[in-house]
Specification:
Blueprint (H helix, E strand, L loop, with lengths): L6 E3 L7 H4 L3 E5 L5 E5 L10 E8 L2 E16 L2 E4 L2 E3 L5 E3 L4 E6 L3 E7 L2 E9 L5 E10 L4 E13 L11 E5 L3 E6 L7 E5 L3 E4 L6 E6 L1 H5 L5 E5 L2 E7 L4 E9 L8 H19 L4 H10 L3 E4 L4 E4 L2 E2 L6 H13 L4 H13 L24 H16 L2 H24 L6 E2 L5 E2 L13 E2 L2 E2 L6 E2 H20 L3 H22 E2 L4 E2 L2 E2 L1 E2 L6 E2 L10 H4 L7 H14 L1 E2 L2 E3 L16 H7 L5 E2 L1 H13 L4 H17 L11 E2 L7 E2 L3 E2 H13 L3
Antiparallel strand pairs: 1-9, 2-3, 3-4, 4-5, 5-6, 5-13, 7-8, 9-10, 10-11, 11-12, 12-21, 13-20, 14-15, 15-16, 16-21, 17-20, 18-19, 22-23, 24-40, 25-26, 27-28, 29-32, 30-31, 33-34, 35-36, 36-37, 37-38, 38-39
Helix pairs in contact: 4-16, 5-6, 5-7, 5-16, 6-7, 6-8, 7-8, 7-9, 8-9, 9-10, 12-14, 14-16
Length: 673
Amino acid sequence: MGTLVKKTFSREYTRTFSEAIRREWVITNGLGGYAGSSLIGANTRKHHGLLIACLKSPTDRWVILNGIKEEVIIGEQKEPLYSEQKTKGKYVNGFVHQTGFSFDAVPEFTYFYKGLSVKKTVALEWEKNTVAIGYEINNGGDDCVLSFVPVFNYRDASASSTKKSIKFKSYALFDSILLEPKSERGDIIRFFASAGTLGFNDPDKQYDEGIELQTEIDTGMSSSDTGYCPYNVQIGIKAGESKRLSFVCTIESDCERDAFVTIKKARERARKLVDRAGFKDEFLKRLTVNADNFICNRESTGTKTVLAGLPWFADWGRDTMIALTGLTLETGRFEDAQSILETFARYEKNGLIPNMFPDGDKAPLYNTVDASLWYFYCTDMYLKYVGTKEAYEFVREKIYPCFKNIIAAYKKGTDFSIGMDADGLIHAGSGLDQVTWMDVRIGNLVVTPRHGKPVEINALWYNALVTQAELAKHFGDKEYASELMKLSKTVKASFVKRFWYAEGGYLYDVVDEVHEGEAYKTDSETIRPNQIYAISLPHTMLDRDKEKSVVNVVLKNLYVDFGLRTLPEDDPYYHGVYAGKLYDRDLAYHQGTAWAFPLGAFIEAYLKVNDYSKAAKEYAETLLEPMKKHLDDGCIGGIAEIFDGDAPHISRGCYTQAWSVGEILRAYALLNK
């Protein structure tokens, strides 16, 4: 079985509390639930905890177990091993005894205090809302007692608790704790201990009040939380003694009660994923493990789906389509890819595939112009990676008819002002609609409207037409194939004529851009990363000189260490830092902020225009070198959603994002082919 890459962070990363909480970790359970916190176990977000259960996969996430407070008791002295920020920036400093943090597929925390060595490992049981915490204890010092206080909660992962809002019936059994939240859901929280004595905490210590969450403070959100901790578990450790202790917390009726079994299975599962992907490179192995965080079940469809990002996003159509190649095909997860592709065909409506899937009786949201077009790209990639007769038969039966509907709808015109003009190009969006990936709206303020004919939409449209023509030819639908190729030639000629900005040597971002309430249209000369898809997609329209020019303009104006900026820094609307309250962050989101996922397309475009030469590959690898280092920053092993446009390009937004991981994985794999 393959080996995992284990990264270890020693004391130089935990010298101060503020430095130690900068780095985070996350693991998932295949349902949409997860565990995650900082390098020292101090929660800094509402979304942090040892068990965030998913009550309706992959959404409806609830914090169940905030954490465990570990203390060493020697005589009358108590010394914490846990860390926690309290009101007004005060903190419990157990991290001073933390000697290291390691991560391969699961997190490990190591502590040392007066001869006592403790290793704590956390894992989630696969496809269950169950967390396992294993302690390996070796006492080279004096007799001592280890005290463990589990801190429970029962709240939405985006909310917070107060002493008044936490309502439990609690029971202490011989080797377990049972909590019954006051809720219509009927969930029961169970906490099992393999050893130790279960005791009651003093009444004044049964609520962990004044928890302060620093990341929430930084983003201008409500930042306090409260946990419920009525019981403790204490275990004596004699001098020279070694012990293993297993804690398991679950909301399942049945679970694995031995934490070390769950830990072992989590690592074995990760090794199998690495084996299947077949990568030898450490960077790609680590991304393969992180990619698994995003692929999970969707209860409402009974199929696989892709979480857009952690810790708060659900599954979105556009993000899924962009991330799918890297997450599933590049890693050999062909069955998962097929399941995801089939799901979208099932929910096609008026030529659109969902931007957000339904839960229960809710209808899907279809407010995206690009997801349907990316669908062609993903299916094309699926056939290129798999290439079997069975794969083509699957596409012919399940996907090809859906593609016909999409092309017909886009030609005729469909929802959200999406439709084809006489020149063969696609226009989209009007009013308050935001149908491209640059989709921020603040009330009635549409920050980046892009209403008209966006460049990447028309690049995707051409790619879709040629892809469908090739499928039609393969399936013997010759007349339809000829019709599509004829249209694609019209689109190609119109695209080059309308989008090429000769004076700048790059592509307009939007042509025939509609200005709401005004009787005129313009062509947007704004330099944006969207134009790179006109070079990176399998089927493109520009000659080689124009392609090289676009790549050079994007490289010089938009590339930064971890992605492509959404505006060049000399643009009057440029925002270099994504920080502060939500309003300020929304203004910066697509107006200068750098995104990781377009870097994948840029790397492919750069290699393409340089004929995949050895020199080009070497240079492309230097462009990705900062991303390798990023895997040891932010969320360990993951790639963030966004970064400040200004140096030092601090990571922001979701701490690990599906299309960031998928596209960088795919792009870096190109260097090894």
